[in-house]
Amino acid sequence: MHFSSSVSKRIILIYVLAIQLLLINSKLSLNTTNEYLNHTCLVSQGKYKPGSEYDKLFKNIMKMFYKNSIRGYDFYGDPTFTAILQCRGDSYGPKCRDCFVTALAALRRRCPWYKGKIIWYDQCLLSMDSKYSVGQIDYDNNFCMSNAKKVEGDQIAFLKAWNNLIHDLTELATTGDNYTLYSVGEKRYEGDTLYGMVQCTQDLTPKACRECVLYNKFHFQDCVHDIRGARAVGRSCTFRLEFYPFIAKQVRNI
Ligand SMILES: *[C@@H]1O[C@H](CO)[C@@H](O)[C@H](O)[C@H]1NC(C)=O
Ligand SMILES: *[C@@H]1O[C@H](CO)[C@@H](O)[C@H](O)[C@H]1NC(C)=O
Ligand SMILES: *[C@@H]1O[C@H](CO)[C@@H](O)[C@H](O)[C@H]1NC(C)=O
Asked: Which residue, 57, 84, 253, 254, has fewest beta-carbon neighbours within 10 Å?
């Protein structure tokens, strides 16, 4: 992540906190928010020139993504270029297309001419890479966002509850004939309801998806474990837990 100064970091933090407050206070926002979360320019992969072969390929693939964004995802990979679009499981059709268009424009602005770049929104992720990386777990480009408020009471019980929820959701997302690499669900926790979501990009196998979630669960345990809501977001997989419903159609009682 390459924010230009700590001031912009703080502004983004305030922005994120404000959005979370809005989410908590208003159910309306379920339909309308698609907040920007983060981006990264993969500087080490270098830049490409306007009109180059890379540029032409990039533009063609983005045209294809625009078309296919209606179904909620797309990916492309060859030895010199990989691109992945993944919308959240409940964002397909025009919602996914809107998120794709927003993400592409923002990447152009934030990482101009960089071959490698990733941007995350609440409802989609768009990533480019100057090598073949389809089906591979990205262990490097991950981050965690948490609400400031800590859980009161039994930390161990809470840790167990969210561990179970993420585990069950991961199973749900990766097993069966019609696995979707996406699942949402909820569990009761001490008179409260804990809502969760797990998703992997569609280029992963179920096994890789499980591995990715497991890795992030471990990697970000300090960020998640005693917090009233958090999400681990990565290029290959993401999970989120809140004490309020953040997806319109939450599955009941898993
Ligand atoms: C979200 O949108 C759907 C239809 O687009 C509508 O039926 C529903 O009431 C909306 N929910 C909220 C919380 O605004
Ligand atoms: C944004 O993502 C990068 C990883 O790509 C991470 O290092 C950074 O901490 C993230 N920034 C925020 C504000 O979460
Ligand atoms: C999986 O999908 C197939 C074909 O679409 C369908 O016939 C079958 O009933 C589905 N299985 C489950 C468990 O939903």
From this structure: 253
